[in-house]
Design goal:
By secondary structure, this protein is mostly beta strands. The chain is built from two helices and eleven strands, in the order βββαββββββββα.
Length: about 140
């Protein structure tokens, strides 16, 4: 991260990543499935960055996500408890998932969300077993047309 980071915001959000350049921010109200989606993606190869709270910093044209110090390497699994997890110290965000919005389109339009002045791709929650694997694949290679 460069020294000229401009802004920082603390969000009620979780974040997972494939690496320090491929992060996914997961936003939504309490109980909407942020941690569940994170755990599912972790089971498919993603790494936790943060759970429940995420610090978001604008670094030029990029958004960088980190965990608040007190929440590093922990994720809540309802019915199981607070689990320890391998954690990336930070990642550049590639997209955001809004768990409060349900996707109704089979082939949805491209959407974006602006966070601290930077627009990134936006996905709505999909209720189905393909959602987490599809997000992993999107982080790996994007979307055709």
């Amino acid at each position: 991260m460069s020294k000229d980071a401009q802004e920082e915001v603390n969000l009620h959000a979780s974040c997972v990543a494939l690496d320090s350049e491929s992060g996914l921010l997961i936003i939504g109200p309490s109980g909407s499935g942020k941690s569940t989606l994170s755990l599912t993606m972790m089971a498919l190869g993603a790494t936790l960055v943060s759970d429940d709270r995420t610090l978001l910093t604008r670094d030029g044209a990029d958004l960088v996500a980190t965990a608040p110090g007190t929440l590093t390497s922990m994720i809540e699994a309802r019915g199981v408890g607070i689990l320890t997890a391998e954690c990336l110290p930070h990642t550049r965000l590639r997209a955001v998932v809004d768990m409060a919005q349900v996707e109704t389109e089979r082939l949805p339009p491209r959407r974006e969300k602006a966070l601290i002045g930077v627009s990134i791709p936006l996905f709505y929650r999909v209720d189905g077993p393909q959602f987490a694997p599809a997000l992993i694949q999107w982080l790996k290679g994007g979307r055709c047309a």
